[in-house]
Design brief:
Blueprint lengths: L1 H40 L7 E7 L2 E8 L1 E3 L4 E2 L6 E2 L4 H14 L19 H6 L2 H5 L15 H4 L4 H5 L20 H15 L3 H13 L5 E2 L13 E4 L2 E4 L16 E3 L1 H12 L6 H7 L21 E4 L12 E9 L2 E8 L4 E7 L6 H10 L5
Antiparallel strand pairs: 1-2, 1-13, 3-4, 5-9, 6-9, 7-8, 10-11, 11-12, 12-13
Helix pairs in contact: 1-11, 2-7, 2-8, 8-9
Length: 375
């Protein structure tokens, strides 16, 4: 009997050691593969970025590359504040959902309630806040950015939404198709202000940033943030040129892309969402549930919740081999790009920010798939 116990104990110990060794090897492989991939995309003296991959509260990979500011030589780190582009829309959406939860408004309210100056009042009465949230309003983007680019270098939320109020027809009936709209979120930011009685930037700071502990995050209302901040760059004629505030039209508008944050703070944002820290869990659940109207006739099934994109695979519009459900939103503004992804079944979250106009989800996806972190 005792020899058998010794044999069993030895086998258990061997299996345990092999498992630990495999786990360590896999994490080391993850780091080496991603470091190798990103060293090809980022150079030490060029614009860079920061990446975080975690499983639950365990960090699987975290690293930063390149520079945040080419003039000062400041390095890009996990604490660097960078423009989030359209990830900003998730904060606006949560603001609307929180006001609804407090019975200050309803996502079934129509636009005429908040914008009585719409040229076509019958049209405005058909469009609900949920249509703006889900990019299904049918409102055409009537901003003349190309011909009036100088004006749009300084135009804020109100100036970006105002042209839509002169619409006399729709591209499609509200709630029947998807057409991504930046100015829709400029309008939603203004709805937060009209309903809360304060600047929407202040509302988000008080009701999301502070409860989540996002002390470095901010929302611009005009000019560029002033410290520990990245500048955005694009490569033109083999030279990186700054392309953000003052160079990129509509950059000053905040509702569609005015949130600035860091990897460290976005890690707290994910934790606050998972722990329902800034609003009720019912609101968080609703924010992750796809809006599927009964009269939908889009070319593909609806995949937007009003806050996030939810779909199988890492990309909304490109089919890939992994078979996992992903909750995500990307950002692209000026020389900045960003992506925040949550994979519930693997308990994995991914955040990255770049200021060299590079979209870097691809090597992350391929490496996680290869090392079987996802299926």
């Amino acid at each position: 009997m005792f020899p058998n116990l010794k044999l069993i104990s030895g086998l258990v110990l061997t299996v345990s050691i092999n498992f630990i060794s495999y786990a360590q090897t896999r994490e080391e492989l993850l780091k080496s593969k991603l470091d190798s991939a990103f060293s090809q995309l980022f150079k030490a003296d060029e614009p860079g970025g920061a990446i975080l991959i975690q499983q639950g509260n365990k960090v699987l990979y975290e690293n930063s590359f390149g520079l945040a500011d080419l003039k000062t030589g400041e390095k890009f780190t996990s604490k660097t504040v960078s423009n989030l582009g359209s990830i900003s829309k998730t904060f606006v959406s949560y603001g609307i959902l929180m006001l609804q939860e407090k019975h200050r408004l309803s996502t079934d309210d129509n636009l005429l309630k908040f914008f009585p100056n719409f040229k076509n009042k019958e049209l405005a009465s058909k469009i609900k806040l949920r249509h703006l949230l889900t990019h299904t309003s049918g409102l055409p983007d009537l901003r003349n950015v190309d011909k009036d680019s100088i004006f749009y270098l300084t135009a804020k939320d109100e100036e970006n939404f105002r042209p839509l109020q002169s619409a006399d027809s729709l591209e499609f009936e509200p709630g029947t198709k998807f057409n991504y709209s930046n100015p829709a979120y400029n309008g939603l930011a203004m709805v937060i202000e009209k309903t809360s009685g304060m600047k929407w930037q202040h509302f988000i700071n008080q009701n999301i940033f502070k409860p989540a502990g996002m002390k470095a995050s901010r929302i611009t209302d005009g000019s560029f943030p002033d410290k520990n901040v990245a500048h955005g760059y694009i490569l033109k004629d083999k030279v990186y040129r700054e392309y953000d505030y003052g160079e990129c039209p509509t950059f000053t508008a905040a509702g569609n892309g005015g949130v600035w944050s860091s990897i460290d703070d976005l890690k707290k944002y994910i934790a606050a969402i998972n722990e329902c820290r800034f609003t009720n869990c019912s609101v968080i659940k609703a924010s992750k549930t796809v809006y599927s109207p009964s009269d939908w006739n889009g070319k593909k099934p609806a995949y937007h919740t009003g806050t996030w994109f939810v779909h199988t695979g890492f990309y909304a519009d490109t089919k890939t081999e992994e078979n996992v459900s992903v909750i995500e939103h990307a950002g692209d503004q000026g020389g900045f790009k960003s992506h925040l992804l949550m994979i519930p079944e693997s308990n994995i979250s991914i955040i990255w920010l770049t200021n060299n106009n590079q979209f870097i989800t691809g090597p992350i996806r391929r490496t996680l798939l290869q090392l079987k972190y996802i299926n």
